Amino acid sequence: MSWIDDTDDEDDEFDEADIRMRPNPKANRPRTKRRPAHADATIARVLGVDRGRYTVLVDEGTDEERRVLVTRARELRRQQIVTGDRARVVGDTSGDDGTLGRIVGIEERSSLLRRSADDTDQVERVIVANADQMLIVVAAADPEPRERLVDRYLVAALDAGVRPLLVVTKTDLADPAKFLSHFDGLDLEVFTSAQDEMPLERIGAALVGHSTVFVGHSGVGKSTLVNALTGSERATGHVNEVTGRGRHTSSSTVSLRYRGETGTGWVIDTPGVRSFGLGHIDRANILGAFTELALVAENCPRGCTHLPDAPDCAIIEAVAEGRLGPEGPARLDSLQRLLTTFGGS
Fold first, then answer.
1. DSSP string spanning 2-25?
2. How large a percentage of the chain has pLDDT more than 90?
């Protein structure tokens, strides 16, 4: 039996246009960087971060205020989100168990408190966003106060435009007068407390209406102070009798509300640190914190360091001539000390 093909040879030729392909919308859709506007996003305060999940406060200050667990959107995977941030949140913001919202953006920050691994590291690590005060906690003894570490905190605060405050604990163990004389030239409000007597009302009054980040060496009583002010139960530790070092108790940065008779504020507790790198600091921000000295510095030679060996420094000359009043020498000494600390010497 033979097969006879009686069709036209031209009909046997297939054109690519004759082949029907099943459309694949995903494969054929052009890639775009455009993202949804999320006009319905809710603004929330980031209270803490734990293993890729963020606790945020929604409808802050209203009767509907609630804590919500959220994650970050994929497009924010390279964005640092830290305690104190004002986040734009979408999805389920009911706060019910088992629900999870999503952060789709971060509002512009008013301040960033940062540190680097060491003075040569230009890579900054953001500690907290939108704080306007830093409360530095040191102990008069056990462990001994470290002037240079406090200087580093002060430099970081001045660089961030954050007002520094100082609390000296354990004053029943040692007189802090000599230590405090180190900071005579600074506009620094100081609180002192014995082990069983804290000026909670005075400190609390300074917290009202502010977001205050608490920093300090391990073992100085920072967590004890935070607990007393906020009613929280942050872990507290002790000082090793052999090394003289405190044990790290706060393992993460978290925002806690202070409620006082005259109002409320935010306490941002941070893990204790033994070093504070300043590789990211801008020298001009340190000088800018000394308003009257910065004004005189406008007459300094270009590139003036304002340090004792700086030739023709207008600030040094003004202090020597007494034009900056009786506080001039102490203010200049404080400026030079902080600039030296920033320089890593």
1. -----S-GGGGPPPGGGS-----H
2. 55
Q: Please give the C-alpha separations between residue 218 and each of 31, 114, 130, 142, 244, in angstroms, as whole numbers.
A: 50, 19, 24, 11, 10
Structure tokens at 245: 């070092």
Q: How many CB atoms lie within 10 A of CB 244?
A: 11
With H, G, I as helix, E, B as strand and everything else as coil, classify residue 109.
coil
CATH, domain 112-269, list 3.40.1390.10, 3.40.1160.10, 3.40.50.300, 3.40.50.1240: 3.40.50.300
Asked if the bond preceding 176 is cis, omega within 30° of 0, the reply is: no
Question: ω into residue 301 within 30 of 0, thus cis?
Answer: no
Domains 42-106 and 112-269 share a fold: no
Contacts of 23 (CB under 8 A, 6+ apart): none
Q: Locate 30 and state its tokens.
A: 């052009």
pLDDT at residue number 117: 62
Q: How does pLDDT run across 181-223, given as a tens digit for each residue? A: 988 888 899 999 887 788 999 999 999 999 999 999 888 999 8
Q: Half-sphere exposure of residue 1, counting CA atoms within 13 Å on the CB side?
A: 1
Q: Where are the domains of the chain?
A: 42-106, 112-269, 283-342
DSSP state of 112: E
- Say if residues 76 and 104 touch (Cβ distance below 8 Å): yes
Per-residue pLDDT tens digits for 113-130 = 987 666 555 566 788 999
42-106 belongs to which homologous superfamily? Nucleic acid-binding proteins (2.40.50.140)
- Contacts of residue 11, defined as CB under 8 A and 6 or more positions apart, other chains included, come to none
Gap between the Cα atoms of 191 and 73, Å rounded:
43
pLDDT of 309 reads 94
Report residue 281's pLDDT band, with 50, 70 and 90 as the boundaries. confident
